[in-house]
Design brief:
Length: 321
């Protein structure tokens, strides 16, 4: 926790962020203290990795890579295996290739040349997972990248990677939900990727994202959509492609109308892609239950999920506040 607090101090050492520091810190520390039987095991991993000579984070597409970590790849592997499942990545650590379930570079390629350059911007990455994209945003030269992610394991994965890096990337991951954050209208780029469909109240999520944006800023929204006319949305009964807590999948026109109702402007659909098993795949880093997209689609008709809904299609929208 000491290390987290030191990194926190460094990150919030910014005039625009300082006034939110105390609230973010106390809420984060509270979350880290929540009773979770895995924490002792995960903390040992962080201590082991933090004791090693560190290396530099770099991009080796599609991987985020750290070279020259002062140990064997086997030692890194045995530690990172204690933090399964690795959903987001992929990573190369020394010679260890960590193929996460999601090949995240495919998503990044769809948007990286369409967004306003992140150079010198304060960036918020909502629902950041283990921070694969948070780190990629930092490598684009952002002034600060604040990731928020309520799932505790992913915060430990982020810290494990961060403990292997020797540079200050001006990024941090806090174990918080957007709803728990103070309203901080300071971010020039706000990302919500893979999060909207998990919200019970999608309009509230869109409004909360807007409340975090500095004037004349950019929202990058990536979410599941379905085919259909304006005002159509699918409300799955039970699971969708095996996922729990999927509440509402809009048509693209419905999604645009939600954004207009939330007060966004210049709404621009930059990509619509079907999710393939090249992007979401089974790997040894998923853990004991190695099911992935191919198991969540109907074997006799892969245009449908196992529940009989349209197979996952994702849209990326860029808009302004
Ligand atoms: C499907 S993952 C997407 C991860 C990453 N952004 C990506 O695009 O690959 C969605 C993440 O959002 C997190 N999440 C869900 N609701 C959230 C909320 N209200 N605030 C912040 N994070 C949330 C989940 O814990 C989950 O890790």
């Amino acid at each position: 926790m000491k290390l987290f607090e030191d990194k926190f101090e460094l990150f919030f050492n910014d005039l625009h962020l300082q006034q939110f520091k105390e609230e973010c810190l106390s809420k984060s520390l509270k979350e880290f203290k929540i009773n979770n039987g895995n924490v002792p095991k995960w903390s040992v991993v962080l201590d082991e990795l933090n004791a090693l000579p560190k290396g530099e984070l770099d991009l080796n597409e599609p991987y985020l890579s750290i070279k020259n970590i002062g140990t064997t790849s086997e030692h890194i592997e045995s530690n990172l295996f204690k933090l399964l499942p690795w959903r987001k990545g992929p990573w190369i650590l020394n010679d260890l290739i960590l193929e996460s379930e999601w090949q995240g570079d495919l998503k990044w390629q769809r948007l990286k040349n369409k967004i306003t350059s992140l150079k010198n911007r304060r960036v918020l990455d909502v629902g950041a997972g283990n921070g694969y994209f948070t780190f990629r945003m930092a490598l684009e030269g952002a002034k600060k990248v604040l990731g928020i992610e309520p799932f505790l394991l992913f915060n430990y994965q982020y810290a494990a990677i961060d403990n292997l890096i020797n540079q200050n990337l001006n990024s941090i991951l806090l174990p918080l939900r957007l709803e728990e954050m103070p309203t901080m209208p300071v971010f020039e780029s706000v990302f919500s990727m893979g999060v909207l469909y998990h919200q019970k109240n999608h309009m509230e999520h869109l409004c909360m994202l807007k409340a975090m944006m500095a004037p004349e800023s950019e929202l990058i929204l990536e979410t599941l959509i379905v085919e259909g006319p304006k005002n159509y949305s699918l409300i799955p009964k039970g699971r969708y492609a095996n996922m729990r807590n999927v509440y509402c999948l809009p048509s693209i026109e419905t999604l645009k109308s939600w954004l207009i109702d939330a007060g966004y402007t210049n709404i621009n659909v930059i990509d619509i892609s079907k999710t393939t098993s090249k992007e979401q795949r089974k790997t040894q880093w998923i853990g004991d239950n190695p099911a992935s997209l191919e198991d969540f689609l109907d074997p006799s008709d892969p245009t449908l999920t196992v529940e009989g809904y349209p197979a996952p299609t994702r849209a990326i929208i860029i808009c302004n506040n």
